């Protein structure tokens, strides 16, 4: 039987919708199993500073539908040092916390893994990031909400694009991975989608836009991931296209941070609830160094080091669907 | 090689968000493969009446984000007769349509199967129903959107519930299956969820509500599927609870048809796009009598007769999560 | 110069979106003028029980966009008695509260007026109700948000109505006044609108629906205020129409309490902010027994007794517009 | 009696939500009075090219809730020449159009006025622009919707701002007028609002941000109109603040074109419906060269030349409210 009596929960890295729902789930699962739960403010930095708050089932009411994270998030350079991590360990021990649930992405998990190796402290990870770039789960927390936010905004942009027969380049998040761009692009009916995983090539882009114009399309949306393979940012793309296709009037929209916010979708709320239960129960069963995830529609766990090293792959079938849709 | 030259597409049964996106996908995939496509109005009834419209890539622009189905849906008693189906067949032949994609649920697929057996006419099914009650796909078209609609509305109801310390019974769709109630209930943070698959029992409901009150919860939401096992409708539940727990002020909200409408979520738009491609490509490969579906995150096909006879199962793990969350 | 040192603020009656924003404004205006502010929980009942909380500028952060009222609302039979009001007065005096801002509707203002007359206690009213049935302001707090909620829902219902060529009766709030029904009805493009102020007559309704069908309209929405003049509720209307116009397939949707919830619109947030400032400044100027309001786009005040006795009038021009729109 | 038999309607200039609803209203009012109506595509350019479409009551169904303008909008250099306007006149005469309703802003009305003076052609204007910068109406079409869009997005940005204790500069539309910035800023609870009408001064901005930090505010939103008086764009402001207040981590978000799109609010739909009726009825009464508007909650008309020359004034009271709210 587990000897865990008090679990600490924190959010770290970029915030994502569903983090509050995940915290709530961790807290309520602790209450269900009659163990204590402490919230750790501002990620690893708050851990070092002992910035904790005692949380019971009532303290997390009314947050399942709130964006962001009420425990806040922060970067911590101090946690990258041995001394910082020692301070964090001491603070946890002083507060009688004997296991951790960390909610975040790659960087968060790397920190947790090192911390576990140094202090043999039980840790479980919950993947919370809008980028969906973690191996070991089909969906990270917040990803589904972000997709809905992005298609909503592009729907609005299309209203004005089609009123004026314009071409829009819309930049969405995704420095290394194109999941948001590809899915939201298909969802919003984008004519072209530029992602880091594929080199469409400028020539093909021009050709596609030219064909689009000829086929009678009056307006076009091109969705561009921040880290698109073409290597031009949206403003350079605008200039390039206007130079080469003067028949187009081009506009740019950079969606930016709004993509991180908003009330989580039902999917993200349910996923957060399931993940929180699984994380706490895994700790209580004596497990550690795992990330909970959704695989084949079921809750599952993946070793943290695998989750970190793994590479999320772009859905090739969906690229093909995208091509067919912009016929 | 396929000899299919013209595919007919129709929607039938209750409408669901994403149906327009699926029609668009079927039409554009036909355009991509340079075959013709005809829209069939009002389901099997329009098929009988030869109410067709020629559709090309441009005719489906601007519909990916629209709720409902522009091809409309209808019941057809005539199609239940041999004579009706013969008329439908004659109309298809007269219009040179040589294969069908039908978008709908159980009843739609049953009709398609009989039609295929009688006339050896190639048919493919796309599961479009908000209830998610079809075997062979983890998600039916529209289900994800409906969940978001329902949690949005319950979020609003909770605003007023918690302002007045009230108990609300919220009835959601689901005569035979509790997927909407269970998932939206967890997503909305409902205190109890009553579904057709489980007999919670009136005693446990009362006890749970009593405990809730004692634990300091000031307001409560109980989500009830139309076909809950307890066998009382929401208004009877209200009376029963008010009689037995006079400390509660109870209100009822029946969400009704709004659950079917609205702009589809990104998930449903992407799913619709993938399913349309898969359905057309399956026909072109010479397949028939299959339903396309999402299984383990991948496009797959299931024999129509299996899809019809199968039983969608409630997620037991999620019932447990729901119990833990209402701690 | 005013001798007011501490203002109490409370919400009472049915909650409406924007109440939190109004509380925030009252609190911040007090902070701006360096006087204290106390929140009174659960309206007059909390006043009697001395259920107060000290509020400063920081305690109301993050609530401008939240529906409902965090101070909660409740009915109080005790406040209808002289003894109850005496208790309330004693509690206020004990807490050094020397003036009141009450946010609510008719009933709330009546209570405030009596309280002022008995104890000469300074009171100011802010009209917070979704019904827009208060004289002395063109808009009550929450009304604009509710209109947006209602048209959003009817937009969804129309998706399914037009997919199936159905007629929907949609019941919206408004027992004595038809403002919500008339405005949301015009905004949602309803074919007919039944309100308490006008007797359309059943014959005209039938005739209009018949004409609608003949003119090729495939689906229809009829918006019905709870207190429509025809005197039939939506379910009776459904039966009546189905009996007399069998060509129609009729459905009913009762929107209910969701109309009260949701994040306030920008208009309601701005209005709440303006009203809170005006209410506090009026008290500080030594005024009392007034309701703040928006008249001709400007902040103004109306004696509370006029606001109570007044009758809000339906916009006849808009009834005419509605008729023309359903041509 | 009027001899007008056919009215042309067009949209011109930047599109705004509610334009479709206004077109619908013009069309239906024509139908009501049994006169013909023609839609003119792409504003004055389409008028020159005779790009017209006959519109009856049924052709505008289902558009009241759609953003953008289905008649499209465009700039026309040709219409700035005498020859261009002559062509336009000839095209109108050839199509038997004998009066115009133009929906747009300043530029649109200027064109209409010149056209009327040259050809004595009856014209009425409907103010459609998100900027609310037209004299003679308290609200232009689309303004209310844009405010809701902007506060929605800033709500999302605040989720991530407060999760990370960051300062955000959010740029909203408004080159010459600060209505959007001021109202959406108050509605979103912005700490500071920079508008073209007021020179807040960089020093005061820094001081206010410093005070904000000291008073314990963990995150801040500063809303900046495109044409803010300070004369720095949002990126320059970010650099300036980061240099002078290194304790702040600053982010920038430029909302851009999404502000123009989206389904119109109930207010804008109702306003559009009222304005369309008023515009057509004014023409039928023999009036011309007027803009319809909402003044003191009532439909009214203003001479087009006054509307053009007038200056919309910022609401000084609201600036004061904004200051008090950021206490």
UniProtKB/TrEMBL annotation, chains A, B, C, D:
Subcellular location(s): the record lists: Cytoplasm
* Active-site residues annotated for this sequence: 131
**Annotated binding of substrate, by residue:** 129-131, 166, 173-175, 226, 251, 257-260
What catalytic activity is recorded? beta-D-fructose 6-phosphate + ATP = beta-D-fructose 1,6-bisphosphate + ADP + H(+)
Q: Which cofactor does it need?
A: Mg(2+)
What are the UniProt keywords, alphabetically? Allosteric enzyme, ATP-binding, Cytoplasm, Glycolysis, Kinase, Magnesium, Metal-binding, Nucleotide-binding, Transferase
GO terms, molecular function: 6-phosphofructokinase activity; AMP binding; ATP binding; fructose-6-phosphate binding; identical protein binding; metal ion binding; monosaccharide binding
PROSITE patterns registered for this protein in UniProt: PHOSPHOFRUCTOKINASE (PS00433)
Provide one Gene Ontology cellular component: 6-phosphofructokinase complex
Describe how its activity is regulated: Allosterically activated by ADP and other diphosphonucleosides, and allosterically inhibited by phosphoenolpyruvate.
Q: Which family does it belong to?
A: Belongs to the phosphofructokinase type A (PFKA) family. ATP-dependent PFK group I subfamily. Prokaryotic clade 'B1' sub-subfamily.
- Protein name in the entry: ATP-dependent 6-phosphofructokinase
User: Upper taxonomic classification of the species?
Assistant: Bacteria, Pseudomonadati, Bacteroidota, Flavobacteriia, Flavobacteriales
